[in-house]
């Protein structure tokens, strides 16, 4: 059984290495083009958003982890191991991280009020987005469903309050911009 689990666990660094290789091959910078690595970028309007290790959009990636855990468990009904479920979640997250950094998606994001200066993610930010999803996945595994729901709502409302954006608003505006949301997001002022 240990050998079986280790085989699936080996998929984690393999997928992360694949993510890094593909992003670098796409021309994504390894770190922020500003030349520094910082733990947190607070302003959603900063050119360093999606460039540093964490920012307000980290909350969305944590939510991804909760949602992926729930969806995979619902679909597979515990017929797969947690390691297999995690690899599926990582595959989806890494696939999104790669797609998100294509010129088409970057340009689509630039149409949103908060992302007009968006240039895509640095590779290190993208990898830490994947780590954040993994953290959300791990937490969801060990807590009751109702606590997961409360945490997802708390993360979504916290980001909405702080930066006028979250996963829900991001998806809505990506699919079809809503004037009222765009107006509300336009009220965010750049950090001094």
UniProtKB/TrEMBL annotation:
UniProtKB keywords: Cell membrane, Membrane, Transmembrane, Transmembrane helix
Transmembrane annotation, as ranges: 56-76, 142-163
Origin superkingdom: Bacteria
InterPro entries assigned: DUF2585 (IPR019691)
Protein name as it appears in the record: DUF2585 family protein
Source organism: Dongia sedimenti
Source species taxonomy: Bacteria, Pseudomonadati, Pseudomonadota, Alphaproteobacteria, Rhodospirillales
């Amino acid at each position: 059984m240990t050998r079986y689990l280790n085989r699936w666990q080996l998929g984690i660094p393999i997928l992360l290495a694949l993510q890094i290789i593909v992003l670098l091959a796409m021309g994504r910078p390894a770190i922020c083009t500003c030349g520094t690595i910082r733990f947190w970028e607070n302003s959603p309007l900063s050119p360093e958003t999606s460039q540093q290790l964490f920012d307000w959009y980290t909350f969305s990636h944590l939510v991804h982890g909760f949602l992926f855990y729930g969806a995979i468990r619902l679909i597979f009904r515990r017929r797969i191991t947690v390691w297999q479920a995690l690899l599926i979640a990582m595959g989806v997250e890494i696939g999104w991280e790669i797609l998100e950094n294509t010129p088409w998606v970057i340009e689509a994001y630039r149409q949103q009020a908060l992302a007009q200066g968006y240039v895509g993610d640095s590779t290190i930010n993208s990898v830490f987005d994947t780590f954040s999803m993994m953290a959300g996945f791990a937490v969801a595994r060990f807590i009751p469903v109702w606590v997961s729901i409360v945490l997802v709502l708390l993360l979504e409302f916290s980001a909405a309050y702080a930066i006028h954006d979250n996963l829900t608003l991001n998806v809505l505006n990506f699919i079809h911009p809503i004037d009222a949301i765009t107006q509300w997001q336009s009220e965010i002022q750049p950090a001094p």
